[in-house]
Write a structure and sequence with these properties.
185 residues; alpha/beta; Arc Repressor Mutant, subunit A; four-stranded mixed sheet; two-stranded antiparallel ribbon; 19% strand; elongated
Amino acid sequence: MTTRSDSLDHPFVWVIIQLLNIETSVELSQDTVRDLTLLEEIEQDPDINQAALAVQLGVAVGTVNWHLKRLIEKGAIKVKRATRRKLRYIITSEGLALRARLTLDFVQQSFKLYRLMRSRAQAIIPQIKEAGFHAVKIQASGDAEDVIRLTCLEHQISVLDDGPIPVIKMQGLKLLLIMPDKVDA
């Protein structure tokens, strides 16, 4: 959809609105996440240098350079020389649209992973209760551990660090339930 703004106060402006397909969930690659991070960092500080971007991403400067060249080829960013040795990165309207799409994809993928982890934790809980346990130990890290912990607590399953209790162990995206040798719950 294209609209035109004719205002005496503003010059002639064309606004292009592209509908987003929010039903599609895209698996985000490491390159996609890096592109999103680069666009966000450049938007916050157009004078940021490649070395600082490399530190933010935890990659080599050459990797940042490669990503920047790709974003320039896509028309997402422009480069202008600020001084003889300093470049300034400018996000184009295409870059803003790309950042919005990548952000939406990232949020959708995050919710998809959250729902997956939560449903897998919920599937394990009846087995824990049937075995007569009211506590577990969790072997996972980061956000996945938080999702598993909250799901257990929601079902009145305590999360402890030690004892002869079942262990919920995360391997990849799978959750394994490891029962203790002794049933001293």
